[in-house]
Amino acid sequence: MSKPQPISPMKNFFAGGFGGVCLVFAGHPLDTIKVRLQTQPKPRPGESALYRGTFDCCKKTLAKEGLRGLYKGMAAPIIGVTPMFAVCFFGFGLGKKLQQKTPDDALTYPQLFAAGMLSGVFTTAIMAPGERIKCLLQIQAATGEVKYSGPMDCVKQLYRENGIRSIYKGTALTLMRDVPASGMYFMTYEWLKYSLTPEGKSPTELSIPSILFAGGMAGIFNWAVAIPPDVLKSRFQTAPEGKYPNGFRDVLRELVREEGIGSLYKGFSAVMLRAFPANAACFLGFEVAMKFLNWLAPNL
Questions:
Q1: How far is residue 132's CA from residue 119's CA, in Å, rounded to a whole number?
Q2: 45 by DSSP, 3-state: which?
Q3: Over residues 9-13, mean pLDDT
Q4: Is residue 15 predicted with pLDDT exceeding 80?
Q5: For residue 275, what is the enclosing H or E element?
Q6: What is the mean pLDDT of residues 73-81?
Q7: Which of 49, 50, 111, 121 satisfies CB 3.0 to 4.6 Å to 107 for a cystine?
Q8: So what's the pLDDT on residue 4?
Q9: Residue 73 in contact with residue 32, Cβ under 8 Å?
Q10: How many other β-carbons are positioned within 10 Å of the β-carbon of residue 38?
């Protein structure tokens, strides 16, 4: 078996960025649907909900706005996701490297989970404002009130209204979502990668279908952990200023009181439908870029 390549956080950074671009292209349409389902207004008595579910939301969006409607607000995640995934994979690489005594050390699954959690801390600084802008742009298209002409205009207006705090609204909830979910994400991927590697082979020689399967399943496990805090975060970030003075506790109380505990899994099918192809594309992009970088600069 070939000697494992030493962990390089820098290579992780560039390969992760490329994986992030692949993820956005594969997953953005279902992300738009997820946010619209999570933030749709509660129907009045006797009225039916704006969207009956994932497919209904997709159908109505296509009918009203065409294919471009599903890619609304994609500029923000492309600008944000590329560095964000670069930083995410860098954090994971760093987390692994910090726990190794020698470059050949194999890490245990709890250590991989801890390295993944570190990557979640790293990404929140970029993730929180990006998510706030994306959610506001996605819901304004659904409500028909155009307040922001694009991502930069949204940042300007938020800054004018309440300074930097307004742009970073929802940071604690983003941390609550991303730290445990990132741990689960990377641990599941590494576990499946090793499980799918044939006897006597190296995980670096894994076939494309196996990488796609491991990446897709990692996405599903990640979101199984992340959905409840994600629902709270979407609600909180798109709420009018001052609606929830005590932060996520108020959002949680209102949501459970009005719509029951099941509402914490709103948009579940849209998330799961998106999680598999988007993360399969992400990890495949990451592995391809990593192979290229190892060939280009084997000693970096």
A1: 20
A2: coil
A3: 93
A4: yes
A5: helix 268-296
A6: 78
A7: 111
A8: 63
A9: yes
A10: 23
Q: CA nearest 92: which of 213, 227, 189?
A: 189
CA separation for the pair 224, 232 (Å, rounded): 15
Sign of CA dihedral 265, 266, 269, 274: negative
Residues 37 and 44: their CA atoms lie apart, in Å, by: 16
Q: What is the mean pLDDT of residues 175-191?
A: 95
Q: How many residues does the chain have?
A: 300
Q: Are 176 and 131 in contact (CB under 8 A)?
A: no
- Mean pLDDT of all residues belonging to the chain: 89
- What is the residue type of 100? Q
CB atoms within 10 A of CB 245: 7
CA distances from 54 to 48, 163, 270 (A): 15, 35, 6
Q: How far does CA 98 lie from the centroid of its chain? A: 24
Q: Rounded distance, CA 95 to CA 54, Å? A: 37
Model pLDDT, residue 290: 94
- Cβ contacts of 85 within 8 Å, gap of 6 or more: 16, 17, 19, 20, 23, 282
pLDDT value at 2 more than 60: no
Instruction: Write the single-letter amino acid at 51.
Output: Y
Count Cβ atoms below 10 Å from residue 127 Cβ, excluding itself: 23
Return the ∠ at Cα 91 (arms to 217 and 107), rounded to 5°: 65
CA 292, 6, 18: angle at the middle one, nearest 5? 35
**Angstrom distance (rounded) from CA 249 to CA 289:** 42
Residue pair 131/233 in contact (Cβ under 8 Å)? The answer is: yes
